[in-house]
Request: fold
Amino acid sequence: LYRKHEGALGIAQRARKKGRVRAIHAKIANTRKDAMHKFSTGLVERNAAIFVGNVQAKSMVKTRMAKSTLDAGWSMLKTMLEYKSHGAGIVFEEVNEAYTTQTCSSCGVIPASSPKGRTGLGIRRWTCCECGAEHHRDVNAAKNIAARGHARLAGGIPVL
Ligand SMILES: [Zn+2]
Reply:
């Protein structure tokens, strides 16, 4: 998506054209913002509830995901999701995502085999040694976040 901008940016930087560099940065920011608007509008249209983890970009800095997370402008996306959800009258909840990566979304325990700590960061797929469920790291974490969000909803609000 940004590749053509990045190419132009490299050329302008090497040529030390400050105005051009600034203009390309602005263009990249706009492209990114447009993409986030489309993505967040689509999510709000297709769902009755949206749950997001409460992770701070700052605490992600040490992980391999830091660059992509910061690049994606997660906090901007979260803000869009929140106000669009409120505007559409759907549920928006920010959920404590501590241990959602390590917890098995099938049996609910934190098995010895789940990805942990620094070495766990490189693990994309893992199998729960307690129940045998096979997980994709991010999908498993997303399921746990969704489950926590559902648990927080009081009074049986219907959720798709
Ligand atoms: Zn399990």
Notes: Residues 104, 106-107, 109, 111, 128, 130-131, 133 surround zinc ion (CB under 6 Å). The first strand starts at residue 49 and ends at 53. Strands lie at 49-53, 91-95, 125-127, 134-136. Residues 18-46 form the longest helix (29 residues).
